[in-house]
Amino acid sequence: MSTALYAAAMRRIRGDGVELAMQDEGQGRAVLLLHGFPDSSRLWRHQVPALTAAGRRVIAPDLRGFGASEKPEAVKDYAIGRSAGDMVAVLDALAIERADVVGHDFGAVVAWVLAARFPHRVDRLVAMSVGHPATARERTMEDREKAWYQLLFQFADVAEPLLQRDDWKLFREWLRGAGDVERYLADLSRPGALTAGLNWYRANLAPELELKPRTPLPAVAAPTMGIWSSGDHYLTEHRMTASAEHVTGPWRYERVDGASHWMQLDAPDRVNALLLDFLAG
After folding, report:
1. Nearest in space to 114 (alpha carbons), one of 143, 84, 73, 144
2. What are the pLDDT digits (tens) for 237-279?
3. What's the CATH fold of domain 3-140+215-280?
């Protein structure tokens, strides 16, 4: 899908206090596609045509702070619960009672929360890369080593200039050549965009949150598929496989070998086949 066609397909809907841009394509049973950092709904450009061709209506929003959606200034506005509220508002605005939900990275966390707290709105769940939030309570040393960048991102007024210095040298190295590198740089170079993206980490992964009691997230009753890719430099496989303990509905796990964290881009045919098979139900 070209950039011009993509832009023409975008619409705007009011979420939980912010206006969101989103792609709304096709007809049939709805499927909601949720991206993470540092992406936008463009991440799903290989999945949208496959899903619409299979007779599905695809809703792919730019989550708050990303893409063409609004970017609130307060860190607290990026708490996962606010984005889950955005998705409920989107479904309400589109008169969609229930949808299948597919989430990747932070979008997977939003999807887990949506399915757990609003089970009457989610038919089937696909979580890509990130396991159920409860699996983060006992992080291994491997988890912490892979997540070193999450600590760096906490430092406001330090992380931003450090990531951008020398033509985004550190940021490019962090990506390891994977993902939509040049598109990320163009998006994040806009005023306030990089801080908005990093605020997702500051709101949800601040170190002090590990010391505070958290409200338990209910188990997910919807049929759920977890997908992890072997080339993921940021997240471990065990947190995805351990998510089975937090799903009371049917659970399925799939591993995509040879793909980076951005498996939608590296192995689109494999990802599309998994989605079409599982969502067919």
Report:
1. 84
2. 999 999 999 999 999 999 999 999 999 999 999 999 999 999 9
3. Rossmann fold (3.40.50)
pTM of the model: 0.96
Beta strands in the chain (DSSP E): 10-14, 19-25, 29-34, 56-61, 99-104, 122-128, 224-231, 251-260
Provide the residue type at 268 as one letter: P
> Would you tell me the crossing angle of helices 106-117 and 193-204 to the nearest 10 degrees?
50
In the numeric block, the tokens 């899908």 are attached to 1
Task: Tell me the three state secondary structure of residue 116.
Answer: helix
For residue 61, whether the previous peptide bond is cis, meaning omega lies within 30 degrees of 0, is: no
Residues 59, 46: contact at Cβ < 8 Å? Answer: no
Question: What does the pLDDT read at residue 138?
Answer: 83
**Distance separating alpha carbons of residues 262 and 255, to the nearest angstrom:** 13
